[in-house]
Amino acid sequence: MVDYRKEGLVAIFEVNNPPVNSLSKNVRQGFVDGLSKATNDPEVKAVIIIGKGRTFIAGANIKDFGKPMEELMSSSPSLIDIGNMLEESEKPIICAIHGAGLGGGLELCLFSHYRLAVKSARVGFPEVNLGILPAAAGTQRLPRLVDITVAMDIISSGRHVAAPEALKYGILDQIVEGDLLKESIKFAHSVIGKPLEPRRLRNLACKSILYCISVIHQFCLKSVRNAADLSYEAGLMMENTYFKYLITGFQSFALRYSFFAERTARKWQLPSGANAANTKPLNVQTTGIIGAGTMGTGIAVSLLRAGYPVILVEQNQEFLDKGVDMIRNILKDGVSRRLMTEDRMKQCLKALKASVDLKHLANVDLVIEAVYENISLKQEIFKKLDYICKPSALLCSNTSSIDIDMNVYGKETSAETVATIMDFGKKIGKVSILVKSCHLFVANRMHGCFQTEAKFILEEGALPDEVDRILEDFGMPMGPFKVSDLAGIDISCRIQHEVAKQHDIELTLQTRFFRGERYSSLSNRLYELGRLGRKTGKGWYRYEKPGGKNAIPDNDIKDVIRIHCKELGIEQRQISTQEILERCLYSAINEGFKIIEEGVVDKPEDIDVIWWYGFGFPRYMGGPMFYASQTGLKKVYDRVCYYHKNFPYSSHWVPSDLLRRLSTAPNPVPITQWKTVLHSKL
Ligand SMILES: CC/C=C\C=C\CC(=O)SCCNC(=O)CCNC(=O)[C@H](O)C(C)(C)COP(=O)(O)OP(=O)(O)OC[C@H]1O[C@@H](n2cnc3c(N)ncnc32)[C@H](O)[C@@H]1OP(=O)(O)O
C-alpha cells in the first residue's frame, strides 16, 4: 500500500492504493512502517512522498465514514499520528503531487516540510461537499501557512485549487516541469541539512485575522477562526469535536450518498450487456446544431468552449444573426467574468460557422437538433438530415417533451452511439444520464407533477410567493413559480396546446379536465393577460422592468386567481406548509418510483443526479429518491394514498406499485437495492 525504496540519500514512499490512493488503514500503517525504516537508516537524509497511478492522494476513504463513530475514531494509526511523526522528523519530508491532493491528502502535505507539484495538479479541501470539515488539523494548519481569508475560502468552498494558484498562496513551494520524481529528488538534495523548524506549521502563528469576523458562521469558519484565537492544541480539539458532530449528521450522510450516486450514475448499462466499461465511444470531431434559439445557442457555447467546431443552422438569416449575436454575448460575458480569456473567446468564435442551409452539415460527426417543440417540424428536419448527413453521423434531438423514439436512448440506438454520447457529454463538461424514451422523459415528467400540484395549490387558496418560499426554505434554489417566470409562461402554454392539438382538443380558460385528468388553466389566463414572466416584467410576480430579476409579490395576481376560481367554482381554503411541501415533492417522488418500475432509468441514483443538475435540488438532501428513503417509504406511501383519495382525477397520485411493495417490506430496503424488489415477490 506504501511501497518503500531508496534512491541514494532519498527514501521514496510511493502510495499504491488504486484507484485514487485514498488513506485507508493499510496506507496509514504503510506510512508508519516507512517512517520507521527511514528514521533508522543513517544513509537516508530525506523522504519523498509520491502517489502511484493517476493521482497523489484523494483523501480519506469516504466509505470509512459510514462506520460507527467509535470504530472510526479508534482506527489507528490516525492521520494526525502520522502527521505528527512526519512533522517531527529530523529528515526533510517532501510531498510530490500530481493529479489531486485532496482532503486528508492535503493535510498530509501540510504536516510535511515541503510541497512540490506538477502544473496540472490540484489541491483542496472538498470535505464541505461531504458535509464535514477537514479534521486532521486542516483548519488549524492551512491558516498558519496562508492568509486566513484564503484558508477560509478554500475550506468553506471545497473547490479544487490549481497548482499555479496554490503556488501563489504559498501552499506549494515549487511547480515542477518534467519528471516529477527526478525533479523532487533534485529538490530533496537541495534542502538536506537546512533547518526544519521554520517549516513546521504547528509552531507558526496564524496569518492575520482580518475580515474573518463577519463570515464565521459555520463550523469550518469557526474552526479556522480557532486557529487564530486558540492554541494549536485547543484548536485541534475543537476541530475534532466539530468533526464528530458533523459526520453523524444527516447532511454529511446525504452528501456522502451523493458522492457515490454521481459515480454510480455514470456507469450505464443496456439489457444487451453493453456497458460503460465494455463499449468504446466513437471519436466526435465536428458538430452541427440546428436552431439558434436559447437552447441551440446555449449548446453551441458549451461545444465551442470544449473546443469543438460548430456549424449553426437556422431557417433564415435574421434568426441566424440573432443566434450568433447571442453566442458572442455569452462568450463576452464569460470573458468579463474571467471564465475565459479574450484569446480563447476569439478562438471559439473562429470555430463557429453559421448557415441557413442544412447541406452544410453533410460532413459533421454529430448533429443536435434544437428547434422548438413541434413534432412535424422535427420530423421534417430528421428526414432531410437522413439524406444529407454522412451515414456514420450521430443525429441527436434536444426535445424535452415530445415522445419520439429517435430522441434519446431509443429502440434503434446502438450501444456504440450511447457510449459516444455519454462520453461526449463528459467532454463538454456535462453530466450525462442514460434514460429510455418516455413521454416527457425523466426530468420534465417528474417536475411536471411538482409544477402541476403547485398550480392546483394556488387554485385551492395559496399564493405563488407562499408556495415558493416553502420550497425555497426546503432547499430548492427557486420555487416553482419563479422557475415558471424564468422559463416563460408562454413556453409551457405552447407545449400544453401542442399536446392538446395532438388529441384534437382545444384548451380554453374554462377547461377543468383534460383527457380525464384535473387541469388548471391558470397559466393560460396569465398568458392571455400578456404576463409571460420575467421577459415581460410580469408573470406570477412583477419585476422591476422587463427582463428584471427581482421577483416582487404582486397583488394583481391575487385578483387573477380569485376571478379564475370564482368563474370555475373552485373553493379556496387555508393550506398548511406540510401539505404544500408534500404535494409538490411526493407527487414527483411517486412518479420517480413509476419511472424506476418502467425501467426508464436503471437506478434511483440516476433520478437524484438529474434533480441536482436539472433543478438544483439540494445535494445535502441527497435528491428526491434519497429524501424519500430517509423520510420512510411507509410514510411516503401512506401520504400518496391519502392524496390519491382526495384528488382522484390526478393520475400522478395513483400510488406506484414499487413504492407500495418497498413500503411494506419487513425491513427498510436500502436505496441501492430497490431494483432487486422489482423482480422479487414482495
Ligand atoms: C484517515 C483520514 C483522515 C482524514 C480525513 C480527511 C477527510 C477527507 O479526506 S474526506 C475525502 C476528501 N476527498 C475527496 O472528497 C475527493 C473525492 N474524489 C474526487 O474528487 C475524485 O475522485 C478525484 C480524486 C478528483 C479523481 O476524479 P476522477 O479521476 O474523475 O475519478 P472518479 O471517477 O471520481 O473516482 C474514481 C473511483 O475512485 C472512487 N473514489 C474517489 N475518491 C474516493 C475517496 N476519497 N474515497 C473512496 N473512494 C473514492 C470513486 O468512487 C470511483 O470509484 P468507482 O468504483 O470507480 O466509481
UniProtKB/TrEMBL annotation:
E.C. number(s) listed in UniProt: 1.1.1.35, 5.3.3.8
GO biological process: fatty acid beta-oxidation
Record keyword tRNA processing present: no
Subcellular localization: Peroxisome
Domain of life: Eukaryota
Single GO MF annotation: NAD+ binding
Chief place of localization: other
3-hydroxyacyl-CoA dehydrogenase NAD binding domain segment(s): 287-405
Entry's Gene Ontology cellular component terms: peroxisome
Pathway(s) where this gene product acts: Lipid metabolism; fatty acid beta-oxidation
Keyword Lyase: yes
Catalytic activity: (3S)-hydroxyhexadecanedioyl-CoA + NAD(+) = 3-oxohexadecanedioyl-CoA + NADH + H(+); a (3E)-enoyl-CoA = a 4-saturated (2E)-enoyl-CoA; (2S,3S)-3-hydroxy-2-methylbutanoyl-CoA = (2E)-2-methylbut-2-enoyl-CoA + H2O; a 4-saturated-(3S)-3-hydroxyacyl-CoA = a (3E)-enoyl-CoA + H2O
Limits of the 3-hydroxyacyl-CoA dehydrogenase C-terminal domain: 441-543, 580-665
Keyword vocabulary terms for this entry: Fatty acid metabolism, Isomerase, Lipid metabolism, Lyase, Multifunctional enzyme, NAD, Oxidoreductase, Peroxisome
Family stated for the protein in its record: In the C-terminal section; belongs to the 3-hydroxyacyl-CoA dehydrogenase family.
Subunit structure as annotated in this protein's UniProt entry: Monomer.
Entry protein name: Peroxisomal bifunctional enzyme
Organism whose genome encodes this protein: Pomacea canaliculata
